[in-house]
């Protein structure tokens, strides 16, 4: 390219030189012919030279101008090219940074939980694979927040996520040097506790976690109380693979929940049968309503002042063709864990109201029927409306219906349930605080609770027979309830000493096997008729034989558990 341009320039120069020589020769010849006066020749030559110079200057000017123009264009082109190059460099740099960012994002998605920032299941598997096969002994601590599904089902998953973030932060703050925290899924967390020396290490660490959950989690100025259940497996005793250790820890966790939640359980092989029993119970329970396998029993409540049966507590019983009689304490927990408790609870309420209607038709319009409701039921948005609708359909006096609510829900979810219970109370339905005193948490604001009565926890009845010192605590609980001007029901009365003590010390109603076992509907009505006719004072009757003659429970504790 440069060689061609040089040749072109040389040709232009030769042409210009030839043209110049031709101009000089031609003009000189013409001047000699046309000018006779030689004296004028000199100034004519000057003029001719000036013309030549002017023409040459014009040509040079045009050439230089064109050259400068071209140079400017080249400069602009070079500038554009430079800018484009810089842009390309920046784009290349940005692309690289983006690639790094994308790579990091993909890594975070793969190995970290996006809600809490904790490491996830994949991280857990990879981290455990690194220490399995070594001499390091470690524990897999499987944690599950108790009853957390109530939050998600009632307040929504978005609000539940806010609580989970707070809980994650709380757990992260408890971690020790050899602990790694993971969020497995939902409300399930795992801690890998490395280099343990013995069971005591695990128990102390787990107890620290349990104690931390006694403090409320505050979200949007609302306080929530949650306990946590913990299952533990140990490497290498309980497994030599990640999946085996996870399975064993989950079985132990199941046992912790089955045993009452808010506790730690270390895996044992004997727990496997309990899991299988749970699976069978769930399978048959799903069709129990359709097959009409449930039946209501009614346990009489004795009025101390009137010396007669003043009402009943409705208790559900289940008999399955394959499993036989299933303890309420077992199948109700399964129902709660599988969300079947809502439909079962509605069935209990409907049939209890039908029984109450029968009592009113037979002339016992002043008697009450008490129905236990679960946490899940109360937390339903339409709980109050559903209860009122059932009462209306059954055509009963709402003043004869009692709703028993567990003490724990009024403490844990007060802001969520208080309005619903007040709605029922204002419509005439009585609200009973069940298991009163079990957690002692309700004592501080008992007067604020939307309740009409309290049912003493069975513990305070049991300790009456221990000794005089133990009775002080029972007296204390009764005095607190009386100071709040509440009706008091003494539960779990199994002998004459308990009956007499509670009768003398301020209880308005009594319930338990000493008075009567839970009865089928026909027997319950007959017992009520006997009480009304005063064929014998209940206070003088001993139900020792009745207390042992029961097909629906092995002892009075099981009957009491039916309402948990």
The strands making up the biggest β-sheet line up spatially as 8-9-11-12-13-14-15-16
CATH T-level topology of the largest domain: TIM Barrel
Tell me the fraction of residues in β-strands, as a range. 15-25%
Largest sheet: 8 strands, mixed, barrel
- What name goes with the CATH superfamily of the largest domain? EAL domain
User: Which value, in Å, is the CA radius of gyration?
Assistant: 46 Å
Would you tell me the structural class of the helices and strands? alpha/beta
CATH C-level class of the largest domain: Alpha Beta
Number of strands: 17
Cα separation of the termini = 98 Å
* Helical content class: 40-55%
- Overall mean pLDDT stands at 83
Please summarize what this structure is.
By secondary structure, this protein is of the alpha/beta class.
Write up what this structure looks like.
Helices cover about 55% and strands about 15% of the residues. By secondary structure, it is α/β, with parallel strands linked by helices. The protein has 3 domains: about 1-95, no CATH class; about 120-270, Alpha-Beta Plaits; about 280-560, Alpha-Beta Barrel (TIM Barrel). Strands 8-9-11-12-13-14-15-16 form an 8-stranded mixed β-barrel, surrounded by 5 helices. A 5-stranded mixed beta sheet has the order 2-3-1-6-7, sandwiched between helices.
């Amino acid at each position: 390219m440069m060689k061609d341009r040089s040749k072109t320039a040389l040709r232009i120069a030769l042409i210009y030189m030839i043209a110049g020589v031709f101009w000089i020769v031609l003009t000189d010849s013409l001047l000699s012919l046309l000018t006779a006066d030689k004296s004028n020749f000199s100034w004519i030559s000057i003029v001719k030279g000036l013309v030549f110079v002017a023409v040459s200057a014009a040509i040079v000017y045009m050439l230089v101008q064109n050259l400068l123009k071209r140079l400017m264009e080249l400069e602009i082109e070079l500038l554009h090219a430079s800018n484009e190059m810089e842009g390309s460099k920046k784009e290349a740099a940005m692309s690289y940074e983006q690639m790094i960012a994308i790579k990091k994002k993909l890594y975070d998605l793969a190995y970290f939980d996006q809600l809490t920032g904790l490491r996830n299941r994949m991280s857990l598997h990879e981290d455990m694979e690194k220490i399995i096969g070594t001499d390091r002994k470690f524990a897999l601590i499987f944690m599950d927040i108790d009853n957390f599904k109530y939050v998600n089902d009632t307040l929504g998953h978005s609000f539940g996520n806010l609580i989970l973030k707070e809980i994650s932060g709380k757990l992260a703050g408890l971690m020790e040097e050899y602990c790694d925290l993971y969020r497995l899924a939902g409300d399930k967390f795992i801690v890998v506790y490395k280099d343990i020396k013995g069971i005591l290490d695990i128990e102390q660490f787990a107890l620290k976690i349990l104690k931390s959950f006694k403090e409320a989690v505050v979200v949007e100025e609302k306080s929530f109380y949650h306990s946590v259940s913990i299952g533990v497996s140990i490497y290498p005793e309980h497994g030599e693979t990640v999946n085996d250790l996870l399975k064993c820890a989950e079985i132990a966790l199941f046992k912790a929940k089955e045993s009452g939640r808010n506790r730690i359980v270390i895996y044992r092989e004997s727990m496997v049968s309990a899991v299988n029993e749970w699976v069978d119970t769930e399978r048959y329970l799903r069709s129990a309503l359709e097959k009409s396998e449930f039946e209501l029993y009614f346990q009489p409540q004795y009025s101390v002042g009137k010396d007669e049966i003043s009402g009943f507590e409705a208790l559900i019983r289940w008999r399955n063709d394959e499993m036989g009689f299933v303890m309420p304490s077992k199948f109700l927990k399964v129902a709660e864990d599988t969300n079947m408790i809502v439909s079962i609870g509605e069935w209990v309420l409907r049939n209890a109201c039908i029984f109450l209607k029968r009592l009113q038709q037979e002339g016992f319009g002043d008697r009450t029927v008490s129905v236990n409701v679960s946490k899940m039921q109360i937390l339903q948005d339409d709980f109050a409306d559903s209860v009122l609708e059932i009462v209306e359909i059954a055509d009963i006096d709402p003043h004869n219906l009692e709703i028993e609510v567990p003490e724990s829900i009024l403490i844990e979810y007060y802001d969520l349930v208080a309005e619903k219970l007040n709605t029922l109370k204002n419509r005439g339905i009585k609200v009973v605080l069940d298991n009163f005193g079990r957690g002692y948490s309700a004592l501080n604001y008992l007067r604020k609770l939307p309740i009409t009565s309290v049912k003493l926890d069975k513990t305070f009845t049991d300790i009456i027979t221990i000794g005089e010192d133990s009775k002080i605590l029972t007296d204390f609980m009764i005095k607190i309830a009386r100071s709040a001007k509440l009706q008091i029901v003494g539960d779990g009365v199994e002998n004459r000493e308990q009956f007499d003590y509670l009768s003398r010390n301020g209880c308005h109603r009594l319930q338990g096997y000493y008075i009567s076992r839970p009865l089928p509907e026909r027997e319950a009505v007959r017992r009520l008729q006997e009480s009304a006719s005063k064929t014998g004072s209940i206070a003088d009757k001993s139900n020792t034989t009745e207390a042992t003659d029961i097909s629906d429970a092995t002892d009075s504790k099981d009957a009491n558990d039916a309402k948990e």
